[in-house]
Specification:
The chain is an alpha/beta fold and 378 residues long. It contains ten helices and 18 strands. Among the domains are: 155 residues, FAD/NAD(P)-binding domain; 92 residues, 2-Layer Sandwich (D-Amino Acid Oxidase, Chain A, domain 2), CATH 3.30.9. Strand 10 and strand 11 form a beta hairpin. The mean pLDDT is 95. The protein binds flavin-adenine dinucleotide. Flavin-adenine dinucleotide (FAD) binds next to helix 2, strand 2, helix 8, strand 12 and strand 16.
Length: 378
């Protein structure tokens, strides 16, 4: 006997598309599917109401990759792959801005700044020396210089005197984007049911039988998995590792000597103004192994490390108290491109958003549609 009422089961039967994961990728992909196949029932389910998705736990950076990150990505992969990823993020943000508008997302066009440790002049100069080359590379995306040398000392931070500004970057209010995307999906006719956790499935000759942790099944013609950092729970062999990101927000500080979004330590530390509060996150490079987890706690060593970073580097000499602390789970791999395609006959994947999945999400939703139309495999 199923644990669902007769009526609840009616909601979960005769579904054309079941989309697992109500994050930015699941919701935008669902909207695209519904828009393209209006006669079909597109149902999004999620294990959590709020609280689970990286989409509501991120830092709200509108960014595409700092100069330092670009250089590393080129060295790790190739010029063309790094440029392609940068372009996907840039295009993704343009689509979000075109659809919802700057005001609705609380976009602050402050630009983003990459700062370097005062002790690592050589590392900073290596990136600064490459600015001409990097600007030439991404000019096809921006039409103008993406990276400009600036005076980082003006911020009052204890950092190397030269920094790099990316004028097209800025910050959004994460909850406003999430609400806009969710409302948009509902307006399109997407159904969203939360509190439903998928535990497994069987791809049958006619569709998918999705098993639920609380008992019961959903019978759907097709399933789209958008569980990003949690995907290994469902497909242990998938090339997506969970990567926890810990984030803290200070109490109100009265005022901040700067506004905007900042990248440091090759992007592993990020911080931004939130009015008169400071948000800071990252530090995963201190313990890659320990942070490869789906556990959503915050930990004392990270809290202490980031607090010390605020008090010695960002606001030197100031003592701060964190009022909020949370973590979110990203989906990572050495290959930083999203993984989009058919996993089996009726099961499609759109996962592995890396550290800039807000930027990628709208692009990914469009690509899902291309994959569905072309029946392209992974
Ligand atoms: C701390 C942090 C800071 C970040 N900062 C930025 C930033 O500033 N800018 C940027 O561009 N990107 C940032 N990102 C990345 C970005 O937030 C993510 O890449 C993006 O939100 C991923 O969206 P998604 O829809 O793929 O996954 P998610 O938002 O994680 O959604 C996946 C959903 O799947 C659900 N789920 C998982 N397993 C199951 C199951 N078995 N059954 C049912 N439901 C399930 C989860 O509950 C979750 O709601 C950050 C991420 C983190 C963690």
């Amino acid at each position: 006997m199923t644990t669902f009422s007769y009526w609840e089961q009616q909601c979960l039967d005769s579904v054309d598309w079941v989309v697992v994961g109500a994050g930015l990728v699941g919701l935008q992909s669902a909207r695209k599917l519904k828009e393209s196949f209006p006669q079909q029932r597109v149902v999004v389910i999620d294990a959590h109401a709020l609280g689970g998705a990286a989409s509501l736990r991120n830092a709200g950076f509108v960014c595409f990759g700092s100069a330092g990150e670009m250089l590393d990505e080129i060295e790790r992969t190739s010029e063309s792959q790094a440029l392609s990823l940068y372009n996907k993020r840039f295009q993704g943000i343009q689509r979000l801005m075109d659809r919802y508008g700057h005001d609705r997302l609380g976009f602050e066009p402050t630009g983003g700044m990459e700062v370097f440790s005062a002790q690592e002049a050589d590392g900073a100069e290596r990136v600064i020396d490459a600015l001409g080359y990097l600007n030439g590379l991404v000019r096809s995306v921006h039409g103008s210089d993406a990276f400009l040398l600036c005076d980082a000392a003006k911020t009052g931070m204890n950092v190397y005197q030269k920094g790099i500004v990316a004028p097209a970057e800025g910050g959004i209010q994460t909850h406003l984007l999430y609400r806009a995307v969710r409302e948009d999906a509902i307006a399109q006719g997407v159904e969203i049911y939360e509190g439903i956790r998928v535990s497994g499935w069987e791809d049958t000759s006619v569709g998918v039988e999705v098993s639920l942790a609380q008992g019961g099944v959903i019978r759907a013609s097709r399933m789209l998995i958008c569980t990003n950092g949690f995907t290994r729970d469902l497909i242990p062999t998938v090339a997506v590792a969970p990567a926890r990101g810990q984030v803290f927000v200070t109490e109100s500080l009265g005022s901040l000597p700067f506004q905007g979004i900042y990248h440091a330590d090759q992007g592993y530390i990020y911080f931004r103004s939130l009015g008169d509060r400071l948000l800071i996150g990252g530090g995963r490079n201190r313990d890659f192994v320990g942070e490869e987890t789906m556990d959503m706690d915050v930990t004392k060593p990270f809290e202490q490390y980031l607090k010390t970073y605020v008090e010695t580097v960002i606001l030197p000499g100031k003592s701060v108290r964190f009022e909020y602390g949370w973590s979110g789970i990203m989906g990572m791999d050495n290959n930083r491109n999203p993984l989009i395609g058919w996993h089996s006959d009726h099961v499609c994947l759109a996962v592995r958003m890396g550290g800039m999945g807000v930027a990628l999400s709208a692009w990914v939703a469009e690509e899902v549609l291309n994959v569905v139309r072309d029946d392209k495999g992974i």
